[in-house]
Design a protein that fits this description.
The chain is α+β, with helices and mostly antiparallel strands. It has one domain: Nucleoside Triphosphate Pyrophosphohydrolase, CATH 3.90.79. It has helices at residues 46-58, 123-129, 133-146; strands at residues 8-15, 20-26, 33-34, 36-39, 67-77, 92-101, 115-122. The protein has a four-stranded mixed beta sheet. Helix 2 (123-129) packs antiparallel against helix 3.
């Protein structure tokens, strides 16, 4: 029996100081590029979810102090193709935004079950490549949020 996903998730934008951004292509949906994302499990705090998803999807084991909590939440409608993962009647998700700055772009260990490939793109190109409006907006906001 599959447990329904919680409608609470994280978005972790991985970037360099020059704002080159890591993107991952979803395995089950070719052409759907995104940053690290994932749903809360159990009673995890958003920071715990961000650390777990980052490790699962990229192999990056970031300390809690390395992740920047933007204290920004996006509420959005769950796309129809993903609603079956949630309990009946659940149509919206609350997404907590985080970022992680790496010293330079580098290959990461993608989770093959979740992602086909990875790429690093300059901020504006990365934003344009994302299928999600919240991911696109977060990428564009990077220099303004982080200074």
């Amino acid at each position: 029996m599959t447990v329904a996903k919680q409608p609470v998730s994280v978005l972790v934008v991985v970037h360099t100081p020059a704002f080159d951004v890591l993107l991952l292509e979803r395995a089950a949906h070719a052409g759907y590029w995104q940053s690290v994302t994932g749903s809360r499990e159990g009673d995890e705090a958003p920071l715990q979810t961000a650390r777990r998803e980052l490790l699962e999807e990229t192999g990056l084991d970031a300390a809690a102090t390395e992740l920047v909590d933007w204290r920004l939440c996006n509420r959005y409608r769950i796309l129809p193709q993903w609603r079956h993962r949630y309990a009946p009647g659940v149509e919206e998700n609350l997404e907590h935004v985080f970022s992680l700055c790496l010293s330079a772009a580098r290959p990461i260990a993608i989770a093959a079950a979740e992602h086909r490939q990875q790429c690093w793109r300059p901020r504006r190109e990365a934003a344009a490549q994302c299928f999600s409006w919240s991911n696109r907006d977060a990428i564009l906001m990077l220099p303004y949020v982080l200074g």
